[in-house]
Amino acid sequence: MLHIKEEAARCLLCEDAPCTKACIKGDPARAIRAIRFDNIKNAGRWIADCSDVDLERAEQACIHYDQPIRLREMFKKSDAPASCPPPLAPLRITFCGIPCENPFFLASSAICTNYEMVARAFDMGWAGVFYKTICKQDIQEVSPRFDAIKEGTSFAGFRNMEQLSENPYEVDFDILKRLKQNYPSKVVVASIMGQYEEEWIELAKMAEEAGCDAVELNFSCPQMRLTGMGSDVGQNPELVTFYTSYVKRNVKIPVIPKMTPNITQVNQPAMGSYFAGADAISAINTIKSITFSPEAEVSEKKTISGYSGRAVKPIAQRFILEMAQNTIMKNIQFSGIGGIETWRDALEFIQIGCCNVQVCTAVMQYGYRIIDDLIMGMQTYLTERSLAAGKTITIEDIVGEQLPSFVLPADLDRDTMVLPKIDREKCIGCGRCHISCTDGGHQAITFDLDVRQPHIIGQKCVGCHLCRLVCPTGAIGLSNRFNKKGK
Ligand SMILES: Cc1cc2nc3c(=O)[nH]c(=O)nc-3n(C[C@H](O)[C@H](O)[C@H](O)COP(=O)(O)O)c2cc1C
Ligand code: SF4
Ligand code: SF4
Question: Measured between alpha carbons, how far is 215 from 250 in angstroms, rounded to an integer?
Fold first, then answer.
C-alpha cells in the first residue's frame, strides 16, 4: 500500500530535478510538488503524457539518498485526472482599499531583504511584500541564527534569532521606491520599527514618501537586543496605542500593526491599535521558544527566540479567531501569518477572517516557487465551489465564513457522540489504535492477535477518536452521531 502523500513528503524537492530531466515527456518533480503542497487534483497535468517507461527512467535518475521516489507507483495510484480544465477563478481581493491580485504575500523576514529577492518573488506571482523590518538601529546579528525541529527532511518548527534589516534605512526605502515604480500592480508594504515616537513617525513618513502602499508596525519581534522594542511594545497595550496613533496621525497610507503571540489577551493591544485608527492588523510574529541543538549555539550560549513554521499554525489561528470574533473591532481587516505552507492553510486563515496571508518559513525552506500551488490550489477550490453553487464565489465571499462554527466550550453539544468505525479493507493490523486506547484512552478496543484485527467495544468507547488519529492507514473513520442517552 503506497501512501501518495507520504511518498511525496519523502521527495527532496530538488531544485533542477534530475527525475524531470530524465523523464523528457513530463515533469514528475512538479507533479510531486503539487501533491506535497496539497494541490493533488492538478498533479496529473505534469505527467499526463508520460508512459511507464518515461517514469521508470525518471525513477532511475532520482538522487534520493535512500530509495528513489516510487514515481510509477505513485502516479498509477494518483486519482488526479490526466488533463483537467485549468482552474480560472480570479483570486483578486481588496485589502485596506488596495487591490491585490491574490491574497499571497511575503512576510517581513529573511525572504525579502533586497530588491532582487522581492522582484523575483513578484515575477513568480506573489501579490505583494511586507518588506524586512526597517529601523534606524545598528543591527548586529548572531551566527548561527536558526534552528529547526525536523520531521523527515522538513521543518516541523523553525527557531530564529534574526532581528531587523541590516541595510541602512535609506537603502531600504530606496529599494521599496524602485519596487513600487517597477511593479506598480504589486503591493509594497514597509515594515518598520522605531525606538521612540519620533523614530516611528520618521520611518512611517519615509515609507509614504517611497510610495509604499501601506506601513506595517513591527510590535512583535521577540528577540530584540535593545529592550523596549519589538514584542516588549506588543505586550504593552498602551505603547501599542500610542505608537499606532502617532503613526496614524502622520501618514495617509494604511497602518497595519503586527501583533505578538507572546501575550495572553491579544485583544488588549489589538483594541488599542484599533481605537488608535489602525486600518488592519497582522498576526502573528514568532512565538518565544528555546531549542537545545549544540550546533545552533552561539559561542556555547543559547537564548529565547522566535518559533515559526507549521507547528505554530493552530496558535496563530487562535489569535486571529479571537480578534475576528471581537465585535468591538468593527470593519478592521486581518492579515494572517503563521505556519502557512499550502493553499488550504491559507484558506483556513481566510475563513476565520483574514483578507490575505503572509508566508515566511515555508519560503525559507522551499523557495518562492510554492506560490504556484498556493494559487492553483486556491483557484481550483474556488472554481469547484463556484460550479457547485452555480455562481462565482470569490475570495471576498469566503472571508470569515467559518467564524460562526467557533463557539465557547460551554456552547458545544455535550449530549451526543460519534463512535469510530474501522474499515477492514484499510486496516493492516498494526495494533496502534489498541495500544493508544489501552494506555491513553478508555480500554475500548480489543485486539485479536490471531487475525490481527482490532474491535471497538461500543459500551466502553467514549468517542474520543484518539484511535482515528493514531491509525497510520486512515482505516478509522466516523460513524453517525447519536444521543448518548440511547447508548
Ligand atoms: C528568519 C526570520 C526573520 C524574521 N524577521 C522578521 C522581521 O524582520 N519583521 C517581522 O515583522 N517579522 C519577522 N519574522 C516573522 C515572520 O514575518 C512571521 O511573522 C513568522 O515567521 C510566522 O510566519 P511563518 O510561520 O510563515 O514563518 C521573521 C521570521 C523569521 C523566521
Ligand atoms: S530527483 Fe528524486 S528526490 Fe529529487 S525531485 Fe525528483 S523524485 Fe524528488
Ligand atoms: S491503527 Fe488502524 S491499521 Fe492499525 S490496527 Fe488500528 S485500525 Fe488497523
Answer: 12
Specify whether the backbone of 331 is left (phi greater than 0), alpha (psi in -120 to 50) or beta: left
Taking the CA of residue 12 as reference, the ligand 2 atom at the shortest distance is 3
Q: Which whole-number Å values give the CA distances from 469 to 53, 437, 462, in the listed order?
A: 38, 11, 15
Q: Angle 83-86-90 (CA atoms, 0-180°, nearest 5)?
A: 165
Cell numbers representing residue 2 in the block: 503506497
Q: Render pLDDT for 4-22 as a digit per residue (tens, 0 to 9).
A: 999 999 999 999 999 999 9
Render pLDDT for 388-441 as a digit per residue (tens, 0 to 9): 999 999 999 999 999 999 999 999 999 999 999 999 999 999 999 999 999 999
Q: Is the peptide bond before 144 cis (omega within 30 degrees of 0)?
A: yes
432 CB within 6 A, ligand 3: yes
Question: Within 6 Å (CB) of ligand 2, which residues are found?
Answer: 11-14, 17-19, 29, 32, 62-64, 69
Half-sphere exposure at residue 367, Cβ-oriented, CA atoms within 13 angstroms: 10
Shortest-distance atom of ligand 3 to CA 447: 5
CA–CA separation, 320 and 19 (whole Å): 41
Give the pLDDT of residue 2. 73
For 93-405, CATH gives 3.20.20.70
Q: Find the length of the chain.
A: 487
- How is the chain split into domains, by residue range? 4-77, 93-405, 413-486
* Pocket test residue of 10, 11, 50 for ligand 2, highest count of atoms within 8 A of CB: 11
- Chain position carrying cell 501599542: 240
Question: Residue type at 256?
Answer: I
Nearest residue to 134 via CA among 174, 177, 172, 176: 172
Q: Can you give the pLDDT at residue 138?
A: 86
Phi, psi of 325 (to 5 degrees): -85, -10
Q: Judge: domain 413-486, CATH 3.30.1330.10.
A: no
Chain centroid to CA 130: how far?
15
Burial label, 461 (beta-carbon count in 10 A; 0-12, 13-18, 19+): buried
Place of cell 501618514: 251
Give the model's pLDDT for residue 224: 80
pLDDT tens per residue across span 114-171:
999 999 999 999 999 999 999 998 888 889 999 999 999 999 999 999 998 889 999 9
Provide the grid cell at 117: 529577492
